[in-house]
Amino acid sequence: MLELVSLDPAQYRDRFPRELSGGQQQRVGVARGLAADPPVMLMDEPFGAVDPITRQRLQDEFLSLQDELKKTIVFVTHDFDEAVKMGDRIAILDVGAKIVQYDTPDVILTNPESDFVEGFIGHGAALKQLTLTRVREVDLHEAATTYEGADPAEAARKVREIGREHVLVLDDRDRPQRWLSLRDLETPGRLDNVRRDRGLDVVSGQSTLNDALDVMLTSSHGVVVVTGARNKYQGVIRVETIMQAMSTIHTTSGGSARDEAAE
Fold this sequence. Notes:
Blueprint: H1 9-12, H2 22-35, E1 40-44, H3 52-69, E2 72-76, H4 80-86, E3 90-94, E4 98-103, H5 105-110, H6 115-121, E5 145-147, H7 152-161, E6 166-170, E7 176-181, E8 202-204, H8 209-217, E9 223-227, E10 233-238, H9 239-252, H10 256-262
Parallel strand pairs: 1-2, 5-6, 8-9
Antiparallel strand pairs: 3-4, 6-7, 9-10
């Protein structure tokens, strides 16, 4: 169970709760719920107590986990963006637990049944449709990559061959560790004992284009690394891909996306 939620058992199985971060505690909570192998799971605001970056990563990991387990899960949240990202179907409740709309995320976004639902969705409904598209559904680009322990000179040659200025270092399990520049590769042995950059901009294939855009806006590389199952490198997503998706939304929504973005 710990491996399923991306926690190394050898490192974490004997720790006390106080020795875990908020995100690690949330992962343990998910593993504990899964250990009983229930036919249906109820998760009440499971990611509500962590920071936004950790929350996005936990959402992505949970969706990857769901792909493996195929569990029926009732997921309670007050965050509509989270509901759109996590749910196959969404039930919106009014006062008194009255269901005012129950449908797929795309239908609710494009055809809210009442003023209450429209207000619950909030402004920018057209741009929220970026949440309906997963990163795995768009074409990814390839970055220059190398491995820990490789020859820096050889890695630099490969980077120059494809007209890049940085290389992404992977470990022996194809997990991204950090970006290195051509200048970094001038140092002999620079690829030995590469330490993972905790600030590396990464999204998973389960992430939405909206997630990717959020990460990209603060990225210093202009691209975001994409990982798949077990955090293996899949490619990178560029701003051009996001802009193309936004252009498609604008075309299909008759310009409403641009109007709402201007607001």
